[in-house]
Amino acid sequence: MSPVPLVDAIGRSFELGETIVGARWIGDVAVFAAGDGAVAGHTLGEEVWNREGVHDGALLATCAGLGDDVLTAGDDGRVASVDAAGQVKTLAIFKGAWIEAIEASRTAKLIAVGVGKEVVILSPDGAEKHRFAHDATVTGVAFEPNGRRIAAAHYNGVTISWAGSPESRRKTLAWKGAHLSVVWTADAKFLVTTMQEQALHGWRLQDGQHFRMAGYPAKIRSVSFTSDNKWLATAGAQEVVLWPFQGPNGPINQSAQVAGELGVPCAAVACHPNRAVLVAGGLDGEVALMPLGGGKPLLVQAPDGVQITALAWSADGKRLAIGAESGRASVCDFSEALG
Fold it and tell me: Which strands, in side-by-side order, build the sheet including 20-26?
């Protein structure tokens, strides 16, 4: 007898109609951002609001906001904030811009937006503070954990700037190829980018030593650090590949480990905020809960042939939001399943 997916037993699923670009929790409300510009809020029990037309066109990116809100950006050049009650506020509009990179730092109280070849730094109310120019289109942005520096991924590398100081010296870490997104380690000692060519690239910032993490059969669409920040979980292979970051050399000359395996390459991963488990979503729609120390994965959602595009844990780790390319979305209550 096949196991009952956890979503069917302790959750619910619903349709939003268009690809789920991102999912974030604000308290007990899961906020789903769809590719057609709509944003919806769902609790475990019901839809609490649905806002169509947050963007006049495609919604391309989303991130956690500076407070109890979610930020969205799209091909209409708009940067918007949506709170837990569904209230929408336009923060900025860049006419003619196609915005697919956005990040916020609650520590620095700043927002970074990729606008063409520039990173634009915004204040909490959306007012522009300054811009950083780059040689190529900015495809990903990430604040240092303390908010002092901003990293921008672009073709042939990543550039680090002091977020609050436009006149200060900047540093470019070069590696040929298309770098799509960028993340910092929690101690800000390493930077890692995902690449178009089915690989990761990284740098040790102390001396600029670079390292390559390759061998993936599919594009790496998602990465996530474990709750203890010792491992970087990555999509892109049937196994969830974990790279070590607990030593002074990170993954340099170190071997990766595996957390679990799906039947097809993983499209999304999300590590639990305080437990040694993660969820992985496949190109075929399967979602599984995997213990980091080994053990049998638990089926969260059965495959339906449609790629998973978003996975998000609530801050307390008791709830999970799932989004798919078809517009199918799910919420799941893990308060008892994880003890």
Answer: 20-26, 29-34, 39-42, 47-51
pLDDT surpasses 70 at 312: yes
CA distances from 43 to 6, 84, 85, 279, 320 (A): 17, 10, 11, 20, 11
CA angle 63, 68, 74 (to 5 degrees): 30
Query: 320: closest CA among 258, 278, 262?
Result: 278
Structure tokens at 58: 């495609």
What is d(CA 76, CA 64) in angstroms, rounded to the nearest whole number? 20
Domains along the chain with CATH numbers: 1-45+216-339 (2.130.10.10)
| Beta-sheet strand order (sheet of 190-195) | 140-143, 149-162, 171-184, 190-195, 200-204, 209-213
Token pair for 30: 């899961």
Tens digit of pLDDT for each residue in 174-226?
999 999 999 999 999 999 999 999 999 999 999 999 999 999 999 999 999 99
For 95, residues 6+ apart whose C-beta sits below 8 A from its C-beta are 77
Those residues whose C-beta lies under 8 Å from the C-beta of residue 273, and which sit 6 or more positions away, are 227, 313, 315, 316, 317
